[in-house]
Specification:
The protein is mainly α. It has one domain. The chain has 4 helices and no strands. Helix 2 runs antiparallel to helix 3. The longest helix has 15 residues. The protein is elongated, with a radius of gyration of 24 Å.
Length: 99
């Protein structure tokens, strides 16, 4: 997630002043309870990471900073430990069978 935030910051720094102002306005709209239908004294709870990812990318898409919204990267699956076998390594057996 951190690399995505860094990428967004890098992209934001490369924008012109007007585009940065538009991005700032849209990001503030994401967190401002008055603009989002809440009351001024209402506290903001932090959304879950998937929801935050969607909202940030939607704001970037609407601002014209990205052409498409990519889904968040899936978590890597844990690698299973190798199975122990007797005799020659399996790779050698496969190579011999192919000859």
């Amino acid at each position: 997630m951190m690399s995505t935030v860094e990428e967004i910051l890098k992209a934001a720094r490369s924008l012109g002043p007007q585009e940065q102002a538009e991005l700032r306005r849209r990001l503030e709209a994401l967190t401002d309870p008055e603009e989002n239908g809440g009351s001024p004294g209402e506290s903001i709870t932090s959304p879950d990471p998937k929801e935050l990812h969607k909202r940030i990318h939607l704001a970037l898409y609407e601002a014209g900073l990205v052409k498409e919204i990519n889904p968040p990267a899936r978590a890597r699956r844990e690698r299973r430990p190798p199975i122990k076998i007797k005799g020659k390594p399996l790779s050698e057996t496969i190579i011999e069978d192919r000859r």
